[in-house]
Design brief:
Number of helices: 3
Order of helices and strands: EEEEEEHEEEHH
Structural class: alpha/beta
Shape: globular
Strand order of the largest sheet: 1-2-3-7-9
Helix content: 25-40%
Mean pLDDT: 91
Strand content: 35-45%
Length: 141
């Protein structure tokens, strides 16, 4: 896993990537959403709301930013499959239908089971991983 770096976004700017996970089936861009309370979230809502004990917070839909991050990783990775998820911290409750790419940590563990240390990665995926690492180190300068 590589975390906390920036990549060129293809629009003459950069985007911050929280986590990228290398798996045999491809790369995963993962963002963690922390907080406590009821989360009002929707795939197409421009803003999400977090209803805490005493306050309500609104913030931009993280799935829109995830799309931007996925695009940046795909530009560097090439034809390797790149998927993404927003991971909900334990203190968040989604009372309505949860958007498809939003998962809890236990759900993510189910979707991406633990692999042995010698799990094979296709050469194209290994090459994409190398390009991600190189682009991330050059962007940090």
């Amino acid at each position: 896993m590589r975390h906390d770096f920036v990549l060129p976004d293809g629009l003459e700017g950069y985007v911050h990537i929280e986590h990228v996970l290398l798996r045999p089936e491809g790369l995963y861009v993962l963002d963690l959403l922390e907080g406590a309370g009821r989360l009002i979230a929707g795939e197409r809502l421009p803003e999400w709301s977090l209803m805490g004990k005493k306050r309500r917070f609104t913030f931009p839909n993280p799935l829109l930013l995830l799309e931007h991050k996925l695009t940046a990783v795909r530009l560097v990775a090439g034809r390797v499959p790149v998927r993404g998820h927003v991971i909900l911290a334990d203190g968040l409750d989604v009372p309505r239908a949860q958007p498809e790419r939003v998962v809890s940590l236990p759900e993510l563990r189910q979707q991406l089971p633990h692999l042995p240390g010698d799990a094979a990665v296709a050469p194209a995926t290994a090459e994409a991983w190398s390009r991600i690492r190189t682009a991330a180190s050059h962007s940090a300068r």
